[in-house]
């Protein structure tokens, strides 16, 4: 959700944020997950991932489209919002 907020703050369209999230989740789900001390997680099918994301994508879109309201609730200053936006945009220019 932090990424959705940062991208929304930078002006990225909520549907583009959701598409990026979807691509990332599909990529991660296609790789066997191995972490020390954790049981291995198997590769997930595309259908399993799509079903899992049904209730997640609306949250991602909401975060990206309501960034101002969420940052207000979190008491993120306008200066911080502008600095975050500038850092993200400068990276891609």
Explain how this protein is built:
It is a single chain. Strand 1 (33-35) and strand 2 (38-41) form a beta hairpin. Helix 1 runs parallel beside helix 4 (57-65). By secondary structure, the chain is mostly helical. It has one domain (2-92). The chain has helices spanning 2-9, 14-29, 46-53, 57-65, 67-73, 78-92; strands at residues 33-35, 38-41. Helices cover 68% and strands 8% of the residues. It has six helices and two strands; from the N terminus they run H-H-E-E-H-H-H-H. The protein has a two-stranded antiparallel sheet with strand order 1-2.
Shape: elongated
Q: Report the major sheet.
A: 2 strands, antiparallel
Straight-line distance between termini: 24 Å
- Total domain count: 1
Radius of gyration, in angstroms, nearest whole number: 16 Å
What's the average pLDDT?
Answer: 88
The sequence of SSEs as H and E is HHEEHHHH
Overview features:
93 residues, mainly alpha, two-stranded antiparallel ribbon, elongated
Structure, briefly:
The protein has 93 residues and is mainly alpha-helical. Helices cover 68% and strands 8% of the residues.
Compile the SSE list and pairings.
Blueprint: H1 2-9, H2 14-29, E1 33-35, E2 38-41, H3 46-53, H4 57-65, H5 67-73, H6 78-92
Helix pairs in contact: 1-4, 1-5, 2-3, 2-4
